[in-house]
Amino acid sequence: MLVLGRKPGEYVVIGDNITVKVVKSENGDLRLAIDAPRDVKITRGEVWEQEHKQGQAI
Questions:
Q1: How far is CA 16 from the centre of its chain?
Q2: Residue 50 within a domain
Q3: pLDDT tens digits, residue range 1-55?
Q4: 3-state secondary structure at position 57
Q5: What are the phi and psi torsion angles at 53 (to 5°)?
Q6: What pLDDT does 58 receive?
Q7: I need a surface site. Which of 13, 42, 46, 58 has the fewest CB within 10 A?
């Protein structure tokens, strides 16, 4: 796992076609803007965990 510190306005690039930019940071809250191709599925962590827990229960 790579851990980076970024300030609002700064970004990271993943591969050639995904950009993750910090757009707001205050009081421990963070907002990210993710620019990726439409065929790349983006899922919030809590949703991903819930989907995988349900998959294991079946």
A1: 16
A2: yes
A3: 999 999 999 999 999 999 999 999 888 899 999 999 999 999 999 999 999 988 7
A4: helix
A5: -65, -40
A6: 54
A7: 58
Residue type, 44: R
Residue 47 belongs to domain spanning: 11-57
Measured on CA atoms in the order 32, 42, 20, 4, is the torsion positive or negative?
A: positive
Helices (H), the chain: 45-57
State both tokens at 3: 């851990």
**Residue 5 forms part of a structural domain:** no
- Which single residue is written with the structure tokens 């827990």? 53
Query: In the block, which residue shows the tokens 């851990």?
Result: 3
d(CA 13, CA 17): 7
Asked, for residue 3, whether it belongs to a domain, the answer is no
Strand order in the sheet with 18-26: 11-14, 18-26, 29-35
